[in-house]
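Example S7 (structure tokens).
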């Protein structure tokens, strides 16, 4: 799993949760601000979970592509051999194959 900073994201649920603000005589209602920050924390935590899930999904897809590429490469090699046999031996190539 990677860190979100790899994507240019500097905040996460913990940094938002631990942020302290100074008190002023006038300003916003601290309870409203806390409630809003709680919503932001939930969103950041969910986003981080999604990033990790998508990274895992991407890694699995990448592995599947590599596996399929190997299968495709093997298929293409077999086809090229068959084409070469046909050019060299023509229709008689079937007679050269071992029978099982």
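Recovered sequence:
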């Amino acid at each position: 799993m990677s860190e979100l900073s790899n994507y240019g994201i500097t905040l996460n649920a913990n940094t938002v949760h631990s942020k302290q603000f100074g008190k002023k005589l006038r300003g916003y209602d601290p309870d409203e601000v806390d409630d809003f920050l709680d919503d932001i924390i939930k969103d950041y935590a969910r986003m981080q979970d999604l990033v990790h899930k998508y990274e895992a999904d991407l890694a699995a897809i990448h592995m599947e592509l590599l596996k399929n590429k190997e299968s495709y490469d093997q298929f293409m090699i077999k086809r090229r051999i068959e084409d070469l046999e046909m050019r060299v031996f023509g229709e008689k190539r079937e007679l050269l194959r071992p029978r099982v």
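Notes on this example. The mean pLDDT is 82.
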